[in-house]
Structure formats: C-alpha cells, structure tokens
Amino acid sequence: MAVRTRPAEGVAMPSALVTGASSGIGLATAVSLAHAGYAVTATVRSPESGAALREAAEEAGVDVDVAHLDVTDAQSVEDVVAAVVARHGGIDVLVNNAGRGRLGTTERVSVDELRATLDVNLVGVWRMTQAVLPHMRAQRSGRIVTVSSIGGLVAQPFNDAYCAAKFAVEGMMEALAPVAAEFGIAVVLVEPGPVATSFVQNVDGLSTLGDPDDPYLPLLQRYIAATQAAFETAQTPQDVADVVLEALAAAEPALRYQTSEAVTARASVKLADPSGTATYAAARARLAPS
Fold first, then answer.
1. For residues 10 and 13, what is the distance between their CA atoms, to the nearest angstrom?
2. Residue 225: band (very low, low, confident or very high) from pLDDT cuts 50, 70, 90
3. Among 11, 58, 117, 118, which is least packed by CB within 10 angstroms?
4. Which secondary structure element, helix H or strand E, spans residue 238, and what is its range?
C-alpha cells in the first residue's frame, strides 16, 4: 500500500483533523497519519481521555496535537476547526470517526435515545463536514474520510438506531461526493466490519440485557452470542487505519472502501439483492436458536 511520505524539510506538512481519537480506530488513524507526514490534530471528547493517545504518539515517536472536541456541540466544532485553520493555514484532511453505538430494537429505544444516537453518528458528522467544507472549497482541495460501518450497508438486528444513523451517513456522503468533487474535494466512506476496540463495551443499552421482563431478551441474547463469535476474528484498529491511509494516498480515491474481504462479500450480497430476501434471511439466521 502506498502512503504519503514525510515532506522535505521546509515544506509545509498537510494538516489532518481526526475526531474520536481517544482509542481504537481514531487513535490508530491519528498516529498513522502523523507517521506518514501529516500535521495531525486528534480530538477527544473529554480532556482526561487523551492519555492513551498521547502515550501511543510518544511510543511511535510522532507529534500529535490533542484537542478537546464534542461533535454534538456546534460551538466546540467551530472552535476546533478555526484553531486548526489558524495554526496550519487550512485543513487538508478530515477523518470523521467519532461515534457511539446504541443497542435495542425500536420498541425499546426511546425517541430521546434515538436523537442522542443520531446527534453523535449523523449530526456530528454533518457538523464537522459542514465546518471544514468552506476552507477546503476555498483552497480547492481536501479529503473528507468518514468511518462508517458494515451497519451502514447491511442492517444488524437490535441496532435500529445505530444503523439508521449509519445508513443516513452513507446517503449524505454519497450525495455530497459528486458536488464536492467539483471543488477538488474527495469524499470517502470507510466501512469496517467487527473491529477489536472498546466500542462494543461502550455501546449504550447493554445495561438492559438482564431484564427478565423484556420479551425480546431471548432474541437479544442469541444476537449477542452471534456477534461475540464474529468478534473472535475481528480486525484491529490498525487494519482500519491502514485503509484510511490507502484512501488518502490514492490519486483518485473510490467513494467506498470496505476494510476486509468479508465486509466486501456482505456488501456485495446486499447490492445483488434488490428484493432484500437474502439480506433478511441472513439476519433471521442470527436470531435462530443454536
């Protein structure tokens, strides 16, 4: 895989802004971008959550500027984007990685919980993208890479709210891509499958798993078991970061990059299944008794 090499001495480093970088994919991507020669601003939601990122950057021997950013706060987004532009003269790369899971079927997810999920996974991406576009448009260059999910292509049982957000992000970026291209801006979606990160442990809704009065509990337990089995062969955050760098190194990047052959195979089944029959049958199979 070709990657950007460090610029020669005296040549300005391209700037990259990465959200959700306290751990997992965001952390690996921020460090990898810095190693590849980008001036990286990596954001974390709370100031104290940047310790692992700073430690990883130090171990890799790279510089990463860690900033506090809440993608659900419009002022926070504006402040960080303005600071990056002031410091580096522009933004060459935005990696939208901040996200939050939400476990539960439609009956069990309140409208407020739905709104909170959308605010991080969809509206947060919208805020970040909207904030950087004027700067990229003015310089007539830039790349916006959004970490989506196989759940943005093929819906997963009990992930109604999360998949709704990721499906919407896919539609947003697919609509934006040809328009942004007229201003020299490339839009990319990176679509991982299972990744070994703390994301799953942090999914909202896990605390309800022990409710014996939940009529969905047997189905949910089967789904969790099937999902845990899938994570036994999960990719690493670095695997996904490598795909992000691949997209950034491409002269003309594709709109979509799946991060493994398994994800590409699942996406292909969906695209070749206009009636939805095969996709529906596969989802039902994950809920069947073992």
1. 9
2. confident
3. 11
4. helix 237-249
Q: Which of 211, 58, 26, 269 is nearest to 128 (CA)?
A: 26
For the four alpha carbons of 174, 178, 183 and 186, in that order, the dihedral sign comes to positive
pLDDT in tens, 76-114: 999 999 999 999 999 999 999 999 999 999 998 999 999
Nearest-5° Cα angle at 82, 76 to 88: 135
Of the candidate CATH numbers 3.50.50.60, 3.10.50.30, 3.90.180.10, 3.40.50.720, the domain formed by 15-285 belongs to 3.40.50.720
Phi/psi for 15 (5° steps) reads: -100, 145
Instruction: For the chain, give every domain's residue range.
Output: 15-285
pTM of structure: 0.89
Of 176, 162, 161, 152, nearest in space to 94 by CA: 176
CA distances from 220 to 4, 154, 156, 182 (A): 44, 18, 12, 46
What integer pLDDT is reported at residue 194 of this predicted model?
A: 86
Residue with structure tokens 């697919």? 174
- Residue 204 is classified by DSSP as B
216 an active-site residue? no
Which residue type, as a one-letter code, is found at position 264?
T
* From 38, 162, 223, 257, the catalytic residue: 162
Over 50: is that where the pLDDT of 7 sits? no
Structure tokens at 259: 């991060």
φ and ψ at 41, to 5 degrees?
-110, 115
pLDDT in tens, 162-183: 999 999 999 999 999 999 999 9
**What residue has token string 């950034």?**
248
Task: Determine the Cα angle at 151 with ends 234 and 133, to 5°.
Answer: 110
H-assigned helices in 89-157: 111-118, 124-139
In the three-class reduction of DSSP (H, G, I as helix; E, B as strand; rest coil), residue 44 is classed as strand
Report whether pLDDT(271) > 90: no
